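Example record used in the benchmark description.
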Amino acid sequence: MRIDLHTHSTASDGTDTPAELVRHAAAAGLDVVALTDHDTTRGHAEAIAALPQGLTLVTGAELSCRIDGVGLHMLAYLFDPDEPALAAERELVRDDRVPRARAMVGKLQELGVPVTWEQVARIAGDGSVGRPHVAEALVELGVVADVSGAFTPQWLADGGRAYVEKHELDPFDAIRLVKAAGGVTVFAHPLAVKRGEVVPEAAIARLAEAGLDGIEVDHMDHDEATRARLRGLAKELGLLTTGSSDYHGTRKTCALGEYTTDPEIYGEITRRATGAFPVPGTGGTA
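Model output (structure tokens):
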């Protein structure tokens, strides 16, 4: 089985619609794909309607969190999307995205970049607007060569000249809320140092004590030494280890299925989940 547990669609900051994403996942030879858009589940219905036969969809979301001043992303799988407390927190994060993006545009304009809110809104379309959409605007304007080039201290990285904070969950609250909604939590790309400051291992241990289920190990932002380090940490803390592409369509260079999760780990994730169940494809037409 080929299992990719971290992808994004146009419901957040990917370039494939949810329907396109599941069709592309099937074409890439995946057996299981998780749709984990940022702080939203609104792409799930379209993905399920289009789900090809032979492909299973894991519903989820990537939750924006912050601990001790450091941002982190928490992958949440197979939770009940209608559970009120978790739904309310996701809504708070989403509601903060537009004013935050507008504020980043304002900072960039002060720095002499001729970006406009209309340009960013056009790029975001119906998705939950975020930094990748602002980054793409910088690419369009020729300010940076690619989206990753915008995530530097000069521009949009945490603490960068045009960075603006947003509402984010405390990760301990995120774990508690996801578990209360019957879901499973995995810390996404925990040592992706190229993105900026990362959470120390002592904090990961605290999250494990609080009920964190796993950490994402095999990821494009982790080199071999980092993966080995994370596997050792996971063994020490009793955490599951996953692998995923973090696919964003054409917005990033990674391909669907570039990194995958062991079927036994996937089986354990589904065993622990009680809020929702993986959806088998029946030959969608949407």
